[in-house]
Hints:
By secondary structure, the protein is of the alpha+beta class. The chain has one domain (2-85): Beta-grasp domain (Ubiquitin-like (UB roll), Roll). Helices cover 27% and strands 33% of the residues. It contains three helices and nine strands; from the N terminus they run βαββααββββββ. A hairpin with a 2-residue loop joins β4 (47-48) and β5. α2 packs antiparallel against α3 (40-46). It starts with a strand and ends in a 5-residue tail after the last strand. The relative contact order is 0.27.
Amino acid sequence: MIKVLFFATIRDYTREKETVAEGSGTVGDLLLELSDRYGGEFRDEAFDGDTISDRVIVLVNGRHIAHTGGAETRLSEGDTVAVFPIIGGG
């Protein structure tokens, strides 16, 4: 199982703070699966066309996917994936 955590406005689209996903694959595969599960609003936030949107931050086991292979980052049983919206502040 892969644990998936949702934060801030992403929770508005999923209506839950966490879920689990089966098996392994890539971060891109997982986000597509979650898009099927949670619908168009989630997909529109998570993707720009076929690429992961710059409106979300995705961490795998606390590491930003920009440093681990982006959408091609491999997932393994027991991983934790966190999905955050970009939040500005000052």
